[in-house]
Amino acid sequence: MNAKEKISYLFDKDSINLEVCESKSGFLLGFGTIEHRKTYFIVFNKDEKPSSLFSDFERLNKFLKNIHVKPAPLVLMMDIPSSHQAAQKSPFPDDAEKLLASENGVGNWYYNHATLSGKVPQTCVVFDKMGAALTFPIALCDTATMIESAGMSIGRLDVVSKILHKDLEYDELGGARLHAEKSASIDWVAHDESSALAYAKKYLSYLPEQSGKPLPQKEFTYSSSIPLEYMIPNNPLHTLDMDVIVDALCDDNSFLELKKSSAKEIITGFATFNGHVAGVMANRSKENSGIFFPHTSQKASRFISLCDAFGIPIVFLSDAPGFMVGGEVESAGSIKSAAQLFSTISNATTAKYSIAMRRTYTAGLYAMGGGGLMPDRFVALPSAIISIYGEAVAKQLMQASDDEQKEHANKIIESSHAPQHFLDMGLIDKIVKYDELRDDIISFVSKYQDGKRSSKRAIQII
Q1: Which of 6, 11, 206, 248 has its CA at 20 to 30 Å from residue 44's CA atom?
Q2: What angle do CA 365, 370, 290 make, to 5 degrees?
Q3: Alpha carbon separation from 157 to 59, 154, 174, 183, 210 (Å, rounded)
Q4: Helix %, strand %, coil % of the chain (to 5)
């Protein structure tokens, strides 16, 4: 597809308003509607070489500043500019000094994307191999999708080869799957252009027009008939298939997973419950037992911040065994990343619903928005096990303990298997029956669809 065909594929028919440019331009700028909602677009036009690259960026920055005045979602479509001779050959542009340091140059492009963050939804679709200055706006958007032949790297292959004296294949340097699985800079790798654009369209369908505005009410069907009780193994050491549970709780085909290929032990994404939009964060025990690593915390923090920016209520489905231990994760900054996650949850004022599905051990309780981190609602299934230690670990530690400590340990093990004990102590709001969980979630999220930051979070001053 050429640039105009991509716009036509994504936007409603006869809704496109293309900004007129008197000279040749490397950008197509304008707005239209996607599912009848106003949306801006910035599209790299690889078929036309701009008359002046700096003038092009002046025009781009003016366009972005206008979005601050008249907010609406933005789609950025990245392709190789016609001013570049080849995707992996570094260019020497005209007006390099002004592009670098002017208030209307490349830096201002970054500034405008960054200052729109959290104010309007921004999504990016990448169609080719981006390098150097073209890479950063991709990650400045809320989400990014790449076709599988695309990629991005700060240093293009020619720079890497000359400076590091090292030859790499492009996929090793900045291929799409590398950024989906390892750097977590993009959310999804698409097979082709049309599926990448379809993902961007679906993503925007969950977001409001701007921060503080109501969330979209979506049409839905619900047909799951699998009893939730039979999906949860009695043995906490056995794998719980959280993907099946998420699908069983949400409206049919409504779950859109974000960053699916990175930190797979945590599930993050958007869904609807009776047509009401919510963020879903859940532990995936079939990947690394659902344990939190530094990259897990980072993925979770970013998702919670995204939901908080647009007033999207968050549903935490907890099957959290806690945080990984050992020298490798300590040197990777596990404590710092976990503390950032706790801080993000604590300071998020969007509504938060946390449910102990099965295991909720030690600081995993906090990582899933429960306990003292001030969720608006904290509940448990009858199968919930809430404890400082998992039973197997507790029994091992007991062997080297004195009688008093063994007594404490036995009490912890006994109470952990009894959600009623936590309810009696006022530590959870309710024990939710298996067949009532979806209705309980619907009742909660339906109250928080106005897009406002509506949490009851309170700060106690001692």
Answers
A1: 206
A2: 40
A3: 30, 10, 9, 18, 39
A4: 40, 20, 40
DSSP assignments along 108-119, one per residue: HHHHHHHHHTTT
Residue 119 and residue 72: Cα distance in Å, rounded? 9
The residue whose two tokens read 């701007």 is: 210
List 126's β-bridge partners, or say none. Answer: 78, 146
Alpha-carbon distance of 17 to 33, in angstroms, equals: 9
Q: What are the start-end ranges of the H helices in 268-333?
A: 294-309, 327-331
Q: Which two tokens stand for residue 40?
A: 């801006």
pTM, whole model, 2 decimals?
A: 0.91
Q: If you count them, how many residues does the chain have?
A: 462
Tell me what pLDDT residue 156 has: 84
Mean pLDDT by 10 residues, the chain (462 residues): 94 94 85 97 87 86 96 96 61 72 89 96 96 93 96 88 84 93 95 97 97 96 91 88 96 97 97 98 96 97 97 97 94 96 96 95 93 94 83 58 62 69 93 97 97 62 43
Residues near 401 by beta carbon (within 8 Å), at least 6 away in sequence: 409
Q: Which of 151, 203, 326, 389 is nearest to 334 (CA)?
A: 326
What SS3 state is found at 272?
strand
Quote the strand ranges of 213-364, DSSP E. 256-257, 266-273, 276-283, 314-320, 352-361
The SS3 call for residue 431 is strand
Could you give the angle at the alpha carbon of 238 between the alpha carbons of 236 and 239, nearest 5°?
110
Cα–Cα distance, 258 to 304 (Å, whole number): 12
Q: Strand 188-190: give its sheet, edge to edge.
A: 17-18, 27-34, 37-44, 74-78, 122-126, 143-147, 188-190
Report d(CA 248, CA 97) in Å as an integer: 56
Distance CA 79, CA 7 (A): 13
Rg for the chain, CA atoms, rounded = 24
Written as one string, the DSSP assignment of 5-27 is HHHHHHSPTT--EEPP-SS--SE
Q: What 3-state class would DSSP assign to 193? A: helix
Residue 55, H or E segment? helix 53-69
DSSP 8-class letter at 434: G
